Amino acid sequence: MLLNLNEIKNTEQWLKNGFIMPAYDVAGLRKKTFAKPTWLHLGAGNIFRAFPAAVLQKLIDAGEWNSGLIVAECFDGDIIDRAYRPYDDLSVLCTLKSDGTVDKTVVASVTEALRCDGARPADDARLMQVIASPSLQMISLTITEKGYAVKDSRGAALPWVEKDIVASPDKAETTMGKLCAGLYARFKAGKKAIALVSMDNCSHNGDKLRSAVMYIAEGWREGGFVSKDFITYIEQKVGFPISMIDKITPRPDQKVADMLTMSGLDCAGIVVTTKGTYTGAFVNAEETEYLVIEDLFPNGCPPLEKAGIYITDPETVDKAEKMKVCTCLNPLHTSMAILGCMLGYTSICKEMGDEDISKLVHALAFREAMPVVHDPGILSPAEFATQVLEKRLPNPFMPDTPQRIACDTSQKLPIRFGETLKAYAASDTLEIRDLEIIPFVLAAWLRYLTGIDDEGRAFEKSPDPMSEELAARFGSLRFGYSTDEESLKDFLCRADIFGTDLVAIHVAPKVVDYFNRMMSGKGMVRKTLSEVVSRF
Predict the structure, then answer these.
(1) Is position 502 within any domain?
(2) Residue of 367, 504, 518, 381 lying closest to 442 (CA atoms)
(3) Please, is 168 exposed, middle or buried when counting C-beta atoms within 10 Å of its C-beta (0-12, 13-18, 19+)?
(4) 363-380: per-residue pLDDT in tens?
């Protein structure tokens, strides 16, 4: 079976081979959406197809909505040309359940896929047309945390952002620049309201999105490209709701590809783009998923709550996000990623079978982070963390890796650990000196930055936007290296990396001590880890 519009008409054949098929008129949906788009998504990666696109399909299947999704990729256009267009923008979602069963769903809710990285001007023009459409209600984004960065650590515009700012809106090249240019087209077409919904896994993502958009818009105003009225339009008619998203979506796995081939699918290969994105005609993801969004849609939105999405007030979203990102999942993930890379693991589920690591993440969640957790009310933090630790992370059918999770760690530390550190520092009842796990994990990250595993072998560090700076500082260090707090003071006081000044809150001495112990020779990452968890 080939994954294309013509082949999926033979529904009986697909059903016979165990696939769940769309229950709607795919061609009719595409025609309607092209004429009157309602939902545009920026970022054509795996999480988009595994979650937002699948959620919309549920609504369409149930007769609750009758418009599809248009997706645009502004960074890695190969995703469109190699994972969308060859399959008529269809995809197969493989939901990997903890009982070993797999749901194979043909997702057809994506009605157009646009390559907007400059390689196809017609797609760029269509993107502007879609954003300007009065019918468009929302633009969602999954572009990773670094996609919202517009300034460097000194507050200066990043080179590629500066290039967009000095150019006119119609020459923008970055995702943020194209989004802002689309808003300008919408402004000129009638000033219709719209919601821009970040679905990326970062703290107060809507606020980050607003800041990035406004930074570019203000730059264009200062350059004379747009008027003050455009700035007012963004301030008054564009909503930037915050959200919390949670669904583990690893890279496409070869075992899943082989399973699809055995099921008769003739296009289950894995594609690696020139920019290093792992993609293909299918995505694999866990069954568990959460999405909590602030109710801020000035032009309406699909009935997402009918597909299990929480639409609520900003305070509840904020608490849900902090619960997950600061306590119940993300800090555990990052801790496992850092240690897993140095201890030779290539599987998260197998890493959860490591008694020391399991003790570490349990203690991190329940002993150190849970006392300052933000309870959202709609989700129980204790139950959430228990599900993560007892069901989700140990799921042997989820092919997730420490190496994937270790990507962009420098951008993740401030929220995943910094918020807990700040809460302890501000507490009248908790003692920051009692913390052991968090200082150890931060020290382990410094040890990770040497690029040498616990046996003294070099390993490939995961991509990070600060990789050059971090490599210059730690990349040449080898066993036997020892330092003191004063020598690392300038680094450990950086709130942009750690979320707070580790020196000022008196956490730095423990970090330095653990770092020195792990640098003292082979096997010392394991030995130090074992010593730390033996206290709990």
Answers:
(1) yes
(2) 518
(3) middle
(4) 999 999 999 998 999 999
